[in-house]
């Protein structure tokens, strides 16, 4: 069985294929032109389901019997920043007013370096060098006329010192619980074995058995 992933990120596809070893992972852009989804959900689950449902609606209905559709939404919640940026993790640096959801949703994603600097600046403005934080991932799937979803979590803390070159997103400032190094300082194998995405995907793999 093959999985069509709503992503253009080959790194993410490879990460998923390592877990779903009995499946072939295909990027949705192998089948149709890229398109955007208006992610106006209130949480990671709602946004992940929006993505997979939009993918279902864009694909030829005859394909749906032969493929599993998958999407994922993830982000980081930082305790000392009122659990921000949350579902807006990808565009955090550009957000001026978190209460203005309509304006937030039309923003483009920021560079990783911009988001990291926003977190560091916000913590430093509170005279903080770290804060408890949690990464959250939700994986949504469409198979046999059913929608399924699973969550994965990774607890730790964010710090104001950037370290490591192996990760992306907020990995260079996030130290997982039980570790002394940031996610970006760990090997890919180490990271994949503990990541929030791995945990959500592993649960989904079990559901699809």
Fraction in beta strands = 25-35%
Structural class: alpha/beta
- Intertermini distance: 11 Å
CATH architectural label: Alpha-Beta Complex
- Tell me, briefly, the overall form: globular
How do the helices and strands follow one another from N- to C-terminus? EHEHEEHHEEEHH
Briefly note the CATH topology name: Maf protein
Record keyword descriptors for this entry.
seven-stranded mixed sheet, 7 strands, 209 residues, Maf protein, 30% helix
Can you tell me about this structure?
It contains 6 helices and 7 strands, in the order E-H-E-H-E-E-H-H-E-E-E-H-H. With 209 residues, the protein is of the alpha/beta class. 33% of the residues are buried. The model has no long low-confidence stretch (mean pLDDT 93).
Secondary-structure map:
Elements: E1 2-5, H1 10-19, E2 24-27, H2 44-58, E3 67-78, E4 84-85, H3 101-105, H4 112-125, E5 130-143, E6 146-159, E7 174-176, H5 188-194, H6 196-207
Parallel strand pairs: 1-2, 1-3
Antiparallel strand pairs: 3-4, 3-5, 5-6, 6-7
Outline:
This protein has helices at residues 10-19, 44-58, 101-105, 112-125, 188-194, 196-207, and strands spanning 2-5, 24-27, 67-78, 84-85, 130-143, 146-159, 174-176.
